[in-house]
Write a structure and sequence with these properties.
47% helix; seven-stranded parallel β-sheet; Rossmann fold; alpha/beta; 18 helices
Length: 468
């Protein structure tokens, strides 16, 4: 029996869950869903980003909605456009076998008239950003005075972004007898104030320790001089050939500058910040989700809607001004039970922040040194060797192997010239390190060349076979 069946969900939701490939509920889902289905209640759920909070409130919300009633019955508030659209898409996927349920996204950067028209046609669930929702209320384009459910997702992030007044105003426009479900990674004073003002004896569930970091994320820092910060970033990227990361900067200007430098230096990178148009942001996120971009350089505000699986690293190119924000950054990796690494590049003057973050996340950082050129060459060589080892060999190229062998021998001869530096006279040994680096570099070129030859020959033979 699928564990979701034991939570009390109906058949249509279980069918959607099967289609989505969900096997077992996460901890927050296991704790929240039965409670929310059992009775109408207020709830505060504290859980890290990436623990499945959307499904934790989404499944019970859909089950409780009256599909025959076209009026708005639920409002979900989220901090960013990206997260608003993501929640909307997920709720639509969950409710695809529930006839008559309509979910509408309301956010800035899109036509407010069209959004109002969609709501008028009938929207039982509205997913909105606070700013646009307040604008629609002020214009009389939406009525939330009779809703039954209100969900505050990423509540701490919304308040960090300065939406406190908007949230208070929006909640004041809703009925007192509704059920309010608040989901947050941390519980700062402002979130507690919202809970106290607008919730009645809420149930509280906590996944992990309150305000702590995720157990699936390891934390490490690298101490560098301020002028070497960018070079350190490149070394760390080179030392992790399969890196799929979000790189955080403090300002839009730094975000754009770092992304441009990485692109110039041959890295697969892009910038994500508030100065981009909605179409540009959508394009960047589409490329990142498709893994066409390995390093997404982002500001904290722009990255708050990012929910991408299999992010291997979060890189704090600069630490945030508010140490609490670090928890949200690191939550972009180590999601859905997978392991991730949060890296911090710091200068001596910032070391005190590491201790402050350790107290908040209740985990220790490991201090590491930036890898050397030789170490990176070794890592890259092993990575290439493993890629070649795992590549399926097309035996149609067997006839060409003797010629390839001759090329290899010629390359090895060149490498041996540099290898002789190892036995050079004492006055030449100062060049030993350079020689080692060149040997490793030549070896890497040799492997790359071989790999390209194998691939090219395989492609040519396949084309010739098709022509014949």
């Amino acid at each position: 029996m699928n564990k979701f069946e034991q939570l009390g969900l109906n058949e249509s939701l279980l069918k959607a869950i099967l289609d989505l490939g969900f096997e077992n509920p996460s901890e927050v889902q296991e704790k929240a869903i039965p409670l929310l289905l059992e009775k109408d209640t207020d709830m505060v759920a504290l859980a890290q980003t990436g623990t499945g909070k959307t499904a934790a409130f989404g499944f019970p919300l859909i089950q409780k909605i009256d599909a025959d009633n076209r009026n708005t019955q639920a409002l979900v508030l989220s901090p960013t456009r990206e997260l608003c659209l993501q929640i909307t898409n997920e709720l639509k996927n969950y409710s695809k076998y529930e006839k008559g349920i309509n979910v509408v996204a309301v956010y800035g950067g899109a036509s407010i008239t069209e959004q109002a028209r969609e709501i008028k046609r009938g929207a039982q669930i509205i997913v909105a950003t606070p700013g646009r929702m307040q604008d629609m209320i002020n214009r009389g384009l939406v009525n939330i005075k009779n809703i039954d459910y209100c969900v505050l997702d990423e509540a701490d992030e919304m308040l960090n972004m300065g939406f406190y007044e908007d949230i208070v105003s929006i909640l004041s426009d809703t009925p007192e007898e509704k059920s309010t479900w608040l989901f947050s990674a941390t519980m700062p004073a402002e979130v507690a104030r919202i809970a106290k003002q607008f919730m009645a004896e809420p149930l509280e569930i906590t996944v992990g320790t309150k305000n702590s970091g995720s157990a699936t994320v390891s934390h490490e820092f690298y101490l560098v001089n301020a002028r070497d910060r960018y070079e350190a970033l490149k070394r760390l990227a080179d030392a992790n050939p399969d890196i799929f990361s979000v790189v955080f900067c403090r300002t839009k200007r730094d975000t754009q500058a770092v992304a441009e430098k990485l692109i110039e230096d041959g890295y697969s990178a892009a910038a994500l910040h508030g100065d981009l148009s909605q179409a540009q942001r959508d394009g960047v996120m589409k490329s990142f989700r498709g893994r066409q971009i390995q390093m997404l350089v982002a500001t904290d505000v722009a990255a708050r809607g990012i929910d991408v699986d299999n992010v291997t690293h979060v890189v704090n190119y600069q630490l945030p001004d508010e140490v609490e924000t670090y928890n949200h950054r690191s939550g972009r990796t180590g999601r859905a039970g997978k392991l991730g690494t949060s890296i911090v590049i710091v200068t001596k003057s910032e070391l005190r922040k590491i201790s402050a973050i350790e107290r908040i996340i209740k985990q220790k950082f490991e201090e590491k040194t930036i890898p050397s050129g030789i170490e990176i060459c070794e890592i890259q060589l092993l990575h290439l060797a493993n890629k070649i080892k795992d590549t399926e060999v097309d035996h149609e190229i067997d006839n060409y192997l003797p010629a390839i062998g001759n090329i290899v021998r010629s390359l090895i001869t060149v490498a041996e010239i540099f290898e002789s530096c190892e036995n050079a006279k004492p006055w030449r040994r100062k060049k030993k390190k350079t020689a080692k680096y060149l040997i490793a570099y030549l070896s890497a070129l040799k492997v790359i060349k071989l790999f390209k030859i194998f691939c090219s020959l395989s492609i040519i033979i396949r084309k010739l076979t098709k022509i014949i």
